[in-house]
Design goal:
This protein is mostly beta strands. It has 2 domains: 466 residues, TolB, C-terminal domain (Neuraminidase, 6 Propeller), CATH 2.120.10.30; 127 residues, Sandwich (Immunoglobulin-like). Helix content is 7%, strand content 34%. The strands form 13 sheets. The chain has a 5-stranded antiparallel β-sheet, with no helix packed on it. It has a 4-stranded antiparallel β-sheet with strand order 6-5-2-34. It has a 4-stranded antiparallel β-sheet with strand order 7-10-14-15, with no helix packed on it. Strand 38 and strand 39 form a beta hairpin. It is globular, with a radius of gyration of 27 Å.
């Protein structure tokens, strides 16, 4: 027999807390593990399913045999490998209107620390299996150091337990349950959980990762590929649909110069758990790449990969080319305006043009398992694009974001660093899948802990909730302060651990929205070969001066946007276009300027989804036009087959 408990318990209360925790967890484990077995026979992911990562809890093996006098129980406390580090919750029914209450969901599907170790970042794929859409995605999770680093050396006192070590030591290994090493994993592993069977397998390995782990993972549904940020090297890895590495993008070297910043190469530091310099309680010895190049979160959206960099977080993006490769056009988007310079560890976009960011406090790792992040000051905020862009500001995004109240403690800034968008909920707390992104879900610590409100909160359940807050997206501050307009879900069902911090990680929702597209979402359309005026080709049978290689469509607040990739194969030298509709009742326009190397953008309004719209183009050199009078112009008409879906309004 072993003694286990939910998370951290101070040594002075160890025995008393263990007796109570064993009963609670035995009941919870029997319910949840039974549900997991049942789910594996059917499917574990449905529209609206909410996956959450977190710390599995701890255990003292063979505790019933007793500990010798003078032995600190914390020295004999290890990761509980049979409890979950990833849970998939059914939040389709929240039991009633939001009133700040704890919601009791059906038992979640679980993946244990013994199977995958500790993970933070999660993402879903598109559910395509053997080339056929199944409607049931797979779930992916990346190894992490954000829930602490723990090392051991072989058993030296013959008590059947390895020896915990605070500092690096010869022969040290990662503790079981740290990175899933028992199942062939390591600090660079991305795990795959089959959405139908629940089967766990190793999907990919970032071999260069020595211990810091993976910052985030994002799936690109257009090119069916993955992006993963490496906290060791700072690189963003591009992986194909089978997990094979394709190439990398190095923000420190290739990104920073695009904003006038000096390049910063990786300093080569690694996590060496056998070296004397390693200190399990000092993250500066863990081999993280330098802050200036450390990429935390990644999110594919609108033909670009957005990513966050550093503790004083900046948001950048880089284009993804038509073949899925990095386009080589890194762009600074904004520097985050928040009260504290904490890392942004998650990014999400809704269908209305908002970009949501979640902060997580600096990495901690208390030896007693109590704290993995400096919590209580992390914000959840959202930005949106200036419309029209204000030329007086450096960014295309608004200068000041809106903020959400996260948790009941004073300040309402309990973010644990994970967020996503969920469908809407009706007045009775039932999921409404006809509304795509009307709810924000975010992870947090001590979400219902506020002594000043204890009497009012008591009606909604226990106070020690570490898990997920569910909030309608319109409720930005000063609304929902304190957040009685939200629901709360606890991660592990253990509700007697008010002291812990940073024990919850990321959250991700499976939210297919077929038939609708949000702002700046890429959507599928097409085009037909262009045709030219009767006087083309020019004298001498020269080829037409312009060709269309590709067209990519996006929804924007002003309507449908078509990005035209034009090939000037005759060397005409044009750098600008004028656009005019050749289809009655349809409006077409083109911006007067564009960034060098970017596609030519055409805005389309007044059409019906799926219609073919004829767009007349004049392709010219801006320098010729600036001279005044007549200037040469290559003219043609491009029939654009617009996407058969409506842009969300």
């Amino acid at each position: 027999m072993s003694c286990e408990y939910g998370t951290f318990v101070p040594a002075g209360r160890l025995r008393r807390a263990m007796h109570k925790a064993i009963g609670i967890l035995a009941i919870a484990a029997s319910l949840w593990l039974g549900a997991a077995a049942l789910a594996q026979e059917t499917q574990i992911i449905h529209p609206g399913s909410m996956a959450v990562t977190g710390f599995s809890g701890t255990i003292i093996p063979n505790f019933e045999e007793g500990l010798p006098p003078g032995i600190d129980p914390v020295d004999e406390t290890f990761i509980d490998t049979v409890r979950a580090t990833l849970r998939v919750f059914d939040v389709s029914g929240l039991g009633g209107p939001a009133s700040g209450q704890l919601v009791y969901t059906p038992p979640p599907f679980e993946v244990t620390a013994g199977q995958i170790g500790h993970v933070f970042a999660i993402t879903y794929d598109d559910g395509v299996r053997d080339g056929v859409p199944s409607g049931i995605p797979n779930l992916y999770a990346g190894a992490t150091s954000l829930h602490g680093i723990r090392i051991v050396t072989p058993d030296a006192d013959n008590d059947g337990r390895p020896e915990r070590q605070r500092r690096g030591a010869a022969g040290a290994t990662f503790m079981d349950g740290q990175f899933g090493t028992e199942n062939g994993g390591g600090p660079g592993t991305i795990w795959k959980i089959d959405g139908i069977t629940g089967a766990v397998s190793k999907f990919a390995d970032l071999d260069a990762n020595s211990g810091p782990g993976i910052g985030d993972i994002s799936f690109d549904n257009i090119h069916r590929q993955f992006f993963a940020s490496d906290l060791d090297t700072g690189q963003i890895h591009r992986l194909d649909a089978n997990g094979a590495p394709v190439d990398t993008f190095d923000h420190g070297v290739a990104g920073r110069p695009a904003h006038g910043l000096a390049p910063v190469a990786d300093d080569g530091s690694v996590m060496d758990i056998e070296g004397a310099a390693f200190d399990s309680e000092d993250p500066d010895t863990w081999g993280y790449t330098q802050d200036e190049r450390r990429v935390w979160s990644v999110a594919y959206h609108g033909g670009r990969l957005y990513y966050s960099v550093g503790e004083k977080a900046e948001i950048w993006s880089v284009g993804i080319a038509r073949d899925g490769s990095f386009a080589g056009d890194p762009r600074w988007e904004l520097t985050v305006k928040a009260d504290k310079n904490h890392a942004v560890t998650d990014i999400a976009f809704d269908n209305k043009g908002f970009m949501y960011l979640a902060q997580r406090g600096p990495v901690e790792n208390r030896y007693d398992y109590s704290q993995f992040a400096d919590s209580g000051e992390g914000e959840v905020i959202r930005y949106w694009r200036e419309s029209p862009d204000d030329p007086a500001t450096e960014s295309v995004w608004v200068e000041m974001p809106q903020e959400y109240a996260v948790g009941f403690p004073e300040g309402n800034r309990q973010s644990a660093g994970g967020l996503d968008l969920q469908y809407g909920y009706d007045a009775d707390g039932n999921l409404d899948t006809s509304v795509c992104t009307d709810t924000l879900v975010n992870t947090g610590d001590k979400l219902r802990d506020n002594p000043a409100l204890a009497e009012q909160l008591a009606a909604g359940g226990p106070l020690a909730v570490h898990g997920v807050q569910i909030t309608p997206t319109p409720l930005v501050k000063p609304a929902n302060v304190p957040p009685f307009g939200s629901w709360f879900v606890d991660f592990d069902g253990y509700l007697e651990d008010p002291e812990v911090e940073g024990h919850v990680g990321d959250v991700e929702v499976w939210r297919p929205c077929e038939g609708r597209a949000g702002y700046y979402d890429e959507i599928q359309g097409g085009y037909l070969p262009p045709f030219y005026p009767p006087d083309f080709p020019p004298p001498g049978n020269l080829p037409p001066c312009l060709d269309v290689e590709d067209v990519r469509y996006f929804c924007t607040p002003s309507g449908l946007e078509a990005d035209l990739y034009l090939h000037d194969h005759s060397g005409f030298g044009g750098d600008s276009i004028k656009a005019q509709s050749r289809t009655p009742g349809v409006g077409v326009s083109a911006p007067l300027s564009r960034a060098p190397g970017s596609p030519f953008t055409v805005n389309i309004t007044g059409h019906y989804p799926g219609d073919t719209v004829d767009v007349g183009l004049c392709f010219y050199r801006q320098s010729d036009r600036d001279k005044g009078g007549y200037y040469p112009c290559c003219k043609m008409t491009v029939p654009l087959r617009t996407p058969a879906v409506s842009c969300e309004r």
